[in-house]
């Protein structure tokens, strides 16, 4: 399935919000905050990268956000990948992988040191992410908190995302 990955256009935000809500609506581990996280990151100027995947008719079928994260030791150049969403009827067709590869390319161009995420090890492991016992995201099973170091020294400690990630469930 062919798709084009590009920067999100400002006029596409409502499509991204609707797509994200749809993609996470029945996800067993979602608290339905993903769309609100994207909006809060953007509002606070913390959305470092917002990519969309569009199908052959230019409809948005996927979205990925990147934002800076910090660690207790103050490591710089690290980003959090997510939320990432793919329309349910387009999942399993390479859209998410294309979004992640594009995001990793951008991170490399920016000279980033690495990227962390909360996600499925089977999916993200194919893209070079792995659990690292030295990095922690409290209250999350360690096997689902994954990282990919791009350059620089390894880091350790608790990872802290933007405050948008710590809000309660959407109502």
Would you kindly provide a written description of the structure presented here, covering whatever features stand out?
The protein is an alpha+beta fold. 25% of the residues lie in helices and 28% in strands. It contains four helices and ten strands; from the N terminus they run βααββββαβαββββ. Strands 1-2-3-5-6-9-7 form a seven-stranded mixed β-sheet. A three-stranded mixed β-sheet has the order 4-10-8, with no helix packed on it. A hairpin with a 5-residue loop joins β2 and β3. α1 packs antiparallel against α2 (34-43). The longest helix is centred in the middle third of the chain and has 16 residues, at 95-110. The protein is globular and about 45 Å long. The mean pLDDT is 91.
Low-confidence stretches: none
Described by strand count, sense and barrel closure, the largest sheet is: 7 strands, mixed
Q: In the CATH scheme, what's the topology name?
A: Aminopeptidase
Q: Any idea how many domains? A: 1
Mean pLDDT: 91
């Amino acid at each position: 399935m062919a798709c084009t990955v590009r920067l999100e256009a400002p006029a596409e935000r409502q499509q991204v919000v609707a797509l994200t809500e749809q993609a996470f609506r029945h996800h067993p581990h979602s608290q339905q905050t993903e769309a609100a996280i994207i909006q809060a990151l953007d509002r606070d100027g913390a959305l470092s990268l917002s990519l969309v995947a569009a199908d052959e008719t230019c409809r948005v079928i996927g979205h990925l956000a990147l934002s800076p994260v910090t660690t207790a030791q103050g490591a710089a150049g690290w980003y959090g990948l997510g939320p990432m969403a793919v329309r349910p009827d387009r999942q399993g067709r390479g859209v998410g992988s294309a979004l992640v590869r594009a995001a990793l390319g951008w991170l490399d161009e920016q000279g980033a040191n690495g990227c962390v995420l909360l996600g499925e090890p089977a999916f993200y492991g194919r893209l070079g992410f792995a659990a690292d016992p030295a990095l922690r995201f409290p209250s999350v099973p360690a096997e689902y908190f994954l990282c990919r170091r791009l350059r620089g020294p390894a880091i350790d400690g608790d990872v802290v995302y933007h405050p948008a990630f710590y809000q309660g469930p959407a109502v």
